[in-house]
Amino acid sequence: MDFAYFQNLAQEAAPPTDGILSRTIYQDENVKAVVFGFGPGQELSEHTASKPAMLYFVQGEAMVGLGDVKHDAAAGAWVHMPAGLRHSIRAKTPLVMLLVLLK
Questions:
Q1: How many CB atoms are closer than 10 A to CB 73?
Q2: What is the pTM of this model?
Q3: Which among 8, 5, 15, 95 is positioned nearest to 55, based on CA atoms?
Q4: Which tens digit of pLDDT belongs to each residue from 18-33?
């Protein structure tokens, strides 16, 4: 049986004091999962992805830009983004986020 199991995603990318940490935790022909740890105030500036993607906020608080709209996000928030959507993420607190890219 082929599977991936993580009991606590927050432990897979502990937020650094300053900077952004990313770690690919799973990848196959259909999906890529990357867990991010953001230090407070750190930001991924506006960009797009060529594939659909999902964000799941595991720990902390952030401001998420989706197109022209900004949303507050905290632990438990989930986002689906179609390919080509402009988006950005700014950590308000130490933040752990899971990015799932659909191939």
A1: 22
A2: 0.94
A3: 95
A4: 999 999 999 999 999 9
